[in-house]
Amino acid sequence: MLVTIFHSPMAFSSMGEDGTGKTYRFRISNVGLATSINFRIQGHTMKLVEVEGSHTLQNAYSSLDIHLGQSLSVLITADQPPKDYYIVVSSRFTSRILTTTAILHYSNSFTRVFGPPPGGPTTQIDWSLNQARSIRWNLTASGPRPNPQGSYHYGMIQTSRTIMLANSAPFINGKQRYAVNGVSFFRPDTPLKLADYFNIGGVFNLGSIPDSPNWGNGYLATSVMAANFRAFVEIVFQNWEDTVQSWHIDGYSFFVVGMDGGQWTPASRSRYNLRDTVARCTTQVYPKSWTAIYIALDNVGMWNIRSENWARQYLGQQFYLRVYSPANSWRDEYPIPKNALLCGRASGRHTRPLLSQ
After folding, report:
1. At a CB cut-off of 8 Å and minimum separation 6, what does 127 contact?
2. Which CDD domains match (predicted)?
3. From edge to edge, which strands make up the β-sheet containing 36-41?
4. pLDDT digit string (tens) for 47-105?
5. Among 52, 183, 214, 328, which residue carries the largest CB count within 10 Å?
């Protein structure tokens, strides 16, 4: 378990020059390999103000869950009696709860912490799910005036495609692997972007991973899914396992429109938040649950969709989404630099100019 915490300024003083409590911003990131965490500060409430670049409604929390690959910012006001307080980070949804602590020290404190650190949530899924739903976009903040943040009305755009992705843990050739829609990713000898750019056959095949779960036996493949530039897509992550999943999409932010327990069906759309959900690049999926996102495919390229659990990612729980534009123009995608290092089957090739600029 590893968490990074950045705060400014470094000195933590309880009183400002005007006699009021000073307020500090903490940015908390879960940069671990396998575990969701809970963050809390003894005796203090945290005002959430930002999640992965989205300014949020400034709700107050006594503790916050941060899942693999996620970051958020909170404001802490030094308005408590001057003494030392525990800062606590503990694991979530694990059979053994791991805890680490730090000390929040008021500059005029002469009282050290004593007793056990404050407890937090452990394996309660509903508690975490309800907290995740309470995190909303602040539609009046941080937008180019006169348009507020959230003036891009994602909930009013018709989706052109639904992709359902289910994680699994098959044994393939007698070895533990992890998969998406039954396909466990096998890394080729040539980077996929180079193979696509130079049109090198035999490295990958579009359609090597289906749009919906394959409940048969898992298999190895260099899985690449085709997608059209400027499509607006609904992606549903379905998790039938007993562990929390965390998914990341390279090159994009997306809108987390819904999450709930059980099996996703088209009727689940009636519970979507189509007004003020946050835009982010990593989302959690709770055990035996689903999470749905909306994503505008406005970035041409070969983009990795992967588990943020590094063991699962390394053993195949990932694939690539090829977002394609036939225009082959600088307006959509910059060319590969002339001095790029080429390897695999692309060795010895020469970059070519684009058709239009």
Report:
1. 121
2. CuRO_3_AAO_like_1
3. 63-66, 36-41, 84-92, 99-105
4. 999 999 999 999 999 999 999 999 999 999 999 999 999 999 999 999 999 999 999 99
5. 183
